[in-house]
Predict the 3D structure of the following.
Amino acid sequence: MPGIGGGLGPGFTLTANLHSVLGPANAGYLEITLCGFGPLLPSINGQNEMLSDAGIPQVVGPGPTITATIWGNDQIVPASTFYCIAVMDDKKNIVQAANYRLAGSGNNLAQLVPILPPYGFPIGDLTYIQCTGTVPGNTYQAPGPIIAVTYNGMVIPEGTSGLSWSRAGNNQIVLNFMTQPGDLIYAFVIL
Amino acid sequence: MLMYAQCDGVVPGKIFSAPGRIIAVAYNGLFLPVPLGLINTLTCSVAGEVITLNFNTQVGDRIYALCVPY
């Protein structure tokens, strides 16, 4: 299937059959949102096509039978993307939503297994970055929530003794020692 | 999946490859950059899964990366 730039088109056909809990087929919609690309601009792998509506919910329907052909996550870079798919009623109230990594040629929503974020944040958002602060000093600022801190490349623990650090304020690191000229304070943070 | 994995490359050498998108690189257990006094710093540049060190590894050195497999 030709794509925007003349390359391959969306490769995953998502289908859904909506029914009432009382049995009969039911009207409704799906809301499909590409997620998990973090600070990177998502694009189609190997093609000159950017996904300019990534992160914006796309509503398809109404049902009861819905078919949507979309880019599979295995066609998209970065590789960390996934879709949040919500089932909505005929008034577009969200009934439930889950995250899915869509790969291959297609499947029915009822057959897909949701993915559970193991870290509580999109893994593509984890970054190792230098923290700002005065040298010599003991207070440093990270650009996001802190996972771990390194001192000259060595991971140091949270604590109050030895080479350690504690949290203070908004994404702030307070070392229990003073840095010296040349020292580097980095942190694993969520951006 | 986040993993801490050994990188492939020739030792001695500067070029290594990780099994996924790199978040941070460790040289003998220390995450780069690592300062050596006031002037020299062990650093690396990263492009995708490829690491280029600004120094040559020696026999016995280990390059690991915190990375997300493709």
In short: Chain A touches chain B through 21 residues (CB under 8 Å). The two ends of chain A are 36 Å apart (CA to CA).
